Amino acid sequence: MLNIVLFEPEIPANTGNIGRTCVVTGTRLHLVAPLGFSLDDHMLHRAGLGYWRSLDVTVYQGWNDFLARNELAPDDARLHLLTKKARRTYAESAYADGDFLVFGKESTGIPEELLAQAPDRCERIPMLTDERALKDADAWETPDVAPADHPILRQDICGNFVNPDDYRISALNLSNAAAIVLYEALRQTGFPGM
């Protein structure tokens, strides 16, 4: 069985969508607190639909609790840390039954200190550069309601966090990123029908 780990997820709909993907693929979901929502959140259950009761999900107090309860070292070979800050792509990685695909929080990803503990476990999803991907950057405008001294991260229609000052995409939508990597891992581990 493969495992998806969401480190401090913030958006309930992403977690619900990922939970639904876990149910239909027989994947276990691990949620590392603090969570940006409650597990009885209406949006979470709406995204997860009727699947949530069938989900194999565990919640942890924090990263160290997750590692301890799963008998993992910070640089364990079963960990795959998905980040923009990796040289190796997810497609260059080898996956095995029991591996953990770790995704960071939507706004900031996996913290630098965790990545630094396991640089050989870091993987990325290739994406176009911002200059090639964002032809409509002027369509996003900074709302007037925030104080001038407070930077704003806005979400585009796909759930990507965008800095309105330089219009840079910080990541794929979390549920899309999880599905991309999970299906490659399932392909490599012989999921039926692939």
UniProtKB/TrEMBL annotation:
Q: Identify the EC number(s).
A: 2.1.1.207
> Residues that bind S-adenosyl-L-methionine, according to the entry?
L82, G104, I125
The keyword Kinase is annotated on this UniProt entry: no
Q: What is this protein called?
A: Putative tRNA (cytidine(34)-2'-O)-methyltransferase
According to UniProt, the reaction catalysed is: 5-carboxymethylaminomethyluridine(34) in tRNA(Leu) + S-adenosyl-L-methionine = 5-carboxymethylaminomethyl-2'-O-methyluridine(34) in tRNA(Leu) + S-adenosyl-L-homocysteine + H(+); cytidine(34) in tRNA + S-adenosyl-L-methionine = 2'-O-methylcytidine(34) in tRNA + S-adenosyl-L-homocysteine + H(+)
Q: Which Pfam families match?
A: SpoU_methylase
Q: What does this protein do?
A: Could methylate the ribose at the nucleotide 34 wobble position in tRNA.
GO terms assigned for molecular function: methyltransferase activity
The segment(s) forming the tRNA/rRNA methyltransferase SpoU type domain are 2-130
Write out the annotated subcellular location: Cytoplasm
| Keyword set, alphabetical order | Cytoplasm, Methyltransferase, S-adenosyl-L-methionine, Transferase, tRNA processing
Family stated for the protein in its record? Belongs to the class IV-like SAM-binding methyltransferase superfamily. RNA methyltransferase TrmH family. TrmL subfamily.
Major localization listed first in the record, in broad terms? cytoplasm
Biological process, per Gene Ontology: methylation
| Source species of the chain | Paratractidigestivibacter faecalis
